[in-house]
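SAMPLE LOG
Freezer: B-3
Tube label: C17
Construct: single chain, 287 aa
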Amino acid sequence: VLDRMQTLAETIGAGPAETHLLVTTFNNLVAGPDDLSLEDETELTQQVETLMREDVLPAYAEFAEALETLKADAPEEPGIWRLPDGDAYYDTALAAYTDEGITPEALHAQGLLEVERLTDELMAALEAQELVEGTLADRLELLAQQEGQLYEDTPEGREALLARMRDHMRRAETIMADVMPAMPGTGVTIRAVPEFLEASAPSAYYSAAPANGSAPAQFEINLSNISDWPDFMLPTLVFHETIPGHHLESALTAESANLPLIRQMVWNVAYGEGWAVYGEILSQDMG
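STRUCTURE (predicted):
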């Protein structure tokens, strides 16, 4: 955690101030109001650049140094169990995410059984593709190396991958619109994680739309290593994160006026992830 935070702080804190993302974003916004003169725009931009150079960038550098200091005393093995009443906290958190009747040991055992089941299922599918040598990881790597699976690590290759994902989502939208009584009014965009966030960002994630409807939901994929995303992985990823997965469930819940506000605003992780996995299966069943 500290390593990732330090990388992020160092990345955001890198200059120069004049071309920093926060400054360029401000410049784009300040150019919008019609009642601002060019002189006012220039003055505001200069003030922001000075603030960035003299206050913000040094603060990020200081934060990164503080994280380096904290790393010296950080435990190698993380876990809430290290803290006072950590085990009780873990049990309470587990009950909040799952069910009060399950223990950590039972859930872990259930997870191991699921891994075994899915491994057997994947191995059978790979054998059907005549990939019969090596471990599961070996066979998946061989599949990824087949012609047409990997995208070039270029701007054009990244855009081709994103276009492919958008095609999968549009296809899912078309099919689901024929079977769902209602589709979300809120849209979702697919884009790459900004480069300055790649080092600290997860591989892929969905973010729900703001409650005021000022922007669509977003699904972002980390393309720092584009070879992590062979073509065969994209359909399931898209269906899980957008439609009929997270976006369909989250957006419809947020737009359901008959639900209490807390149900509209607070996402139930166990239910939401269960729905998204169901969305993967549903996508396969519906072609």
